[in-house]
Amino acid sequence: MSQPPVAVVGIDAGTTAVKATVLAIDGTELATARTPVEVTRPGPAQAEQSMTELWHAVVRTVREAVEAAGDVAVPPAGVTGQGDGAWLLDEHHEPVGPAILWLDGRATDRVRAWEHDGRAAAIRRTTGSTLFPGALPVLLEELEATRPDLLGRARHHANCKDWIRLQLTGVLATDASEASRTYVDTATGTYSADLVDALGHRRFAELLPPIAPAGAHRPLTPAAADTLGLPAGIPVVTGLVDTAAGGVGLGVSTPGQTYAIIGTTAFLGTVHATRADVGTDVGITLATGQDGAVLECLCPMSGTPNLDWVRSLLGRGAESWASVEAEARAVPAGAGGVLYLPYGAEAGERAPFADPHASASWVGLSTETTPGQLLRAVYEGIAFSLRECQEALGVGGTVRLCGGAATSELLCQLLAAITGCTIERASAAELGARGVAAHALAAVTGTDVPTAAARLLGELDVFRPEPGLRTAYDTRFAAFVAVRDAIRPQWPALRGLRTLGDDHPSPTHKEPV
Question: Where is the Carbohydrate kinase FGGY C-terminal domain (predicted)?
């Protein structure tokens, strides 16, 4: 009787969906499953998620993928997930309330205060990252002021993938990439007591989980094994935050390599041998836990939500994405002079500039503007934002790409034309899950992570720049930046206008003239 194929499981808990993939060790996809998860909006600028419901979604997704894969031998599993936010647990490792997500904007005013009092600069010096409203340190102070009941019950913090791994293994730990967004000195990959003191956060330090190597592993508990339909005792690796895991899944680990992710957020990152090689002061720096190497990243706040929003706004919600994209593709380059500023997130923008008041808008409209031009302008605006990140990082050449929006042929072609880079799109799905699957495979086979990742990557689709479009898009990109910079001083006032009518409702009847 033939032996069942050896496989590895990768789990990726994103902001809007949990994905699980079962891969043969030669990279063949045996099964993939996906379960949507809800983001709740309990108040203005707030974004939360039930940690319990997220775990239930993980169970459903993994069981579905494992059952669809059939008779396989599953030695290891890896977990990744969305980063940042506040995922707080009590002394029994139970949630004290819903997780506050990375895109939450309730701490916007506090971020502005920290920019003025020097604490944001202290974070930047130590972590190599800019402060934004969804970061843990500023959220802890916000909760202390507005939800002392919730914070008072908290004894531990566990980011998304750490919470899932806790359910799998009974052990709470994080990794250097995840902890880089809290209080870690990314030059050393360890928590910085100096930063804790500079922020006046000694009272929060006990919440922080221990940092373990990404490839460190613990056994799956019998209870979790029974719930998931997996063998008890299989190793579950610590894993990486989703943006770092996506790079591993794309085979990007060598200093000088660059990759992009366009999902709920956008992302452009490049690998450096050391923190000393980081060249910007507006990005995110993630320690990798690998010989001092770091990722220098620029992460615009809003990626696919721009496309989801305009699709719905224009009444195309019932149409397929192929139909929507065909309408945008039928419009010539430049969208008839319409520009779109893709800053739709409630928490503002964090790359390649930081501004919690950033707002989305179309400019250059007329009564002749068509829905197709509005659509194409959104695609182009996302690509312009990535080009601005590219120039800030000083990267070029070849960029590997993944993420939900990477399935768009139009967007891939626009990225190549607007950035001048060759875009290599992974044809395989769920690159974040594949990235942590590579860590899991390396952990049990004794190979290194780049070798394991190369085995799991699969084919790449290549999009090359069209020379004839570059000059036209150079002109439009310059206009994009100039218009954005001109309107930016008005963003705080425009944000204020959103609530101006709340205390003065519209009249319900007209007085006679």
Answer: 259-443
